[in-house]
Amino acid sequence: MRVRRLLRFAAIGAAVVVLALAGFVAARLLGGKTGGLMQVVKASPEVVARGKYLAEAADCAACHSAPGGAPFAGGLGMASGFGTIYATNITPDPDNGIGRWTADDFWRALHDGVRRDGQQLYPAMPYTSYRGMTRADSDAIYAWLMQLRPMKVANKQTALDFPYNIRLGMLGWNLLFLTDSLPATSQGSGSAWQRGRYLVDVLGHCGECHTPRGLLGEMELSRSLTGFALGRVAAPDITPAGLASRGWTPASLGTYLGRGIAGPNSAFADMHQVVVLSTRNLASDDIAAMTSYLLGDKPPAPTVETVGEGNPAGRTSYVALCAGCHGLDGKGIPNTIVALRNNSTLRLADPRNLIVATLDGIGPQNFPHRMSLPGMPGFADKLSDEQAAALVNYLRVAWGGQKPDVTAATVRALR
């Protein structure tokens, strides 16, 4: 009798939980809106200008503008381990963009990851970082976006594998992984450090690329900013220790964020877009604040450059393919060809970025302040896996202070 009673109570309890969950889900969905009036936003020129600055700090253009497409009209495909997610149109078009969205709708998307129609957003839209944004900053960005020219560009359908294509699953994901704030990755307490933390962790959402991901795509916050490779190119470790190990100082890091080129280091791949579309537009005080947070109030001393011998086979390939531009001594040509000596990419423990650059090359790039770098050819068709491994190992030992541990199999996996 007692067992039956316990089972009965358990069944009632389970039913209550299911009903409560169903009610919660229904409330979220029914709370969504479709249709409605086109919004007309009246904001002061100061608020609109601030919104533009904040949108640049938040790097909205990088994801919401597809190559060759209209600015902020979406369409950029973002590959993940679960399928492809397409960035949406955030111009004030009433049917395809956010023209019917209110400031409250916009805030809900940034803070809670919920669309105007009540559907869950996937964290490719980094609400997991934007959750720390102030309401005033959200409203300013919204006010600026609503002044843009509406672009009648239809959104592409997200293509995720089952069961990840069921958006309701994000309710459980958010319960497990959505936090109100991200852990600090450096030591500090001053106003510049605090501002830098907001710019790096919230607006800049740097952790979305630079923090390792778990099996369900969540940021592993116990290892924030320690680096991660979602694809062939890795976002490196940008903790104080990681930056110092590659020779970064507050001065060089600030120059890099503002110009994209700092001594032997130049931004490429996704980071080039970050500099050109975002950090180059920040005020000098904000760039200084970012470096204050990334390195801490008391930056660690940068690791001294190490020069080694390297292997003869790799040296032969270097002389034949690379020395004509980078020089026999790896010092490059100032303002024209980056140096390889003391280059941050060579000093990474993970060799993948150097391997990919060697195989694919890097296209010509323009930088702020009328700087530009010519393209570097790729050598995938000239080097076997063994030869490429030998060249990469030579570079890492000669000018990176790293071990010659790249194998032909490592190269083959990245072709």
Describe this structure in words.
The protein has 18 helices and nine strands. With 415 residues, the protein is mostly helical. The longest helix is centred in the first third of the chain and has 29 residues, at 2-30. It has a three-stranded antiparallel sheet, with no helix packed on it. A two-stranded antiparallel sheet has the order 4-5. The radius of gyration is 24 Å and the shape is globular.
The number of helical elements comes to: 18
How far is the first residue's CA from the last residue's CA?
68 Å
Strand content: 5-15%
User: How many domains make up the 3D coordinates?
Assistant: 3
Structural class from helices and strands? mainly alpha
Could you give the order of strands across the largest sheet? Answer: 1-2-3
**Parts with pLDDT < 50 across at least 5 consecutive residues:** 1-31
Largest sheet: 3 strands, antiparallel
Based on CA inertia axes, which overall geometry fits? Answer: globular
Query: How many runs of DSSP E, i.e. beta strands?
Result: 9
User: What oligomeric state do these chains adopt?
Assistant: single chain
Percent helix: 40-55%
The pLDDT mean sits at 91
N-to-C order of helices and strands: HHHEEHHHEHHHHHEEHHHHHEEEEHH
Q: Whole-number radius of gyration?
A: 24 Å
